[in-house]
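BUG: 3D viewer hangs when loading the predicted structure for this chain

Environment: internal workstation, default settings.
Expected: structure renders.
Actual: progress bar stalls at 90%.

Input used:
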Amino acid sequence: MNRNIQRLAIGAVTLFGLLTITACGGPPAQIPTVPPAANSSAAVDSASSSVSSSQADTTESVALAYDPKDGSLLKADNAGLLRWRTDTGWRKVNIPQVSTLSAIVVNPDNPTTYYASGPGVGVIRSNDSGNTWQAINTGLPSLDITALAIHSFRRDTVFAWMRGKGVARTEDGGANWKQVPDRGPRDTNVHGLVFSTLPGSMNTGWLYASTPTGAYMSMDCFCGWRAAGNIPANPMIRSVAVDPQTPARVYAAGPAGLFRSDNGGLDWGEPLTGLAGKPLAVTLDPKTPQTVFAVLIDGSVWKSPDGATTWQPLKAA
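Structure tokens produced before the viewer hung:
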């Protein structure tokens, strides 16, 4: 018995050492090279039109964001940008010359400011809730962007995942970008990013990445990535959301269901119940983060008022 306990202790110490090496100086992952993306236009205008939501292509990036200004939801995917309101349902936000998007983020402290990205588009910014847009790609090494994240308290800091190149960062709201010295997680097919103020970072926080092989996390000093626990059954993660007031609470959506972790993604429970279908993306209200929203692959919108414990479908008028 003592010998077995000793073996377990040695194994735990060894595992902790490996995780520490990985998180703070492990070798960068090797990722394939892709051709450079084409240039995007400098400025575009947008208008809204009604659409019916169809079955989503779950192989591409899908991002969901909450707009605290009016309580609407924004979804970016290969159909472009759509907005959901209780009085209209899903309506397309038309962005001329842009047909496919990969990410959408809203500045919670200034909710008229949106950032969006797409393949060949780079990053675009709107200062008027999506009515007009401006390309903000100065210094961006690639326009093939598959994910975006905004910093939790430095709101002019935004992170972008460049397919085949890694992470770029702006600290001035997109006026200038620089690539960080980091090659990303082991699975470089990153479909989503989110920032977290989970304690323990050697800098200001952490980034979570959504990939087909699970969620990964890195301090924003970018000294290495590690897996954020193991999702039961199918490990694919399409979307991650973090509670800004309780950053140890993390939500992950994928083909196996919606999951919640209460220790920063180290452990995940069984799929949460109450949703009538497979979740496509998850987000929350940053001001009242117990309010969680999920969009299913059929386009239906669901809301939980209690941290994903109970759910109710939202119907448009």
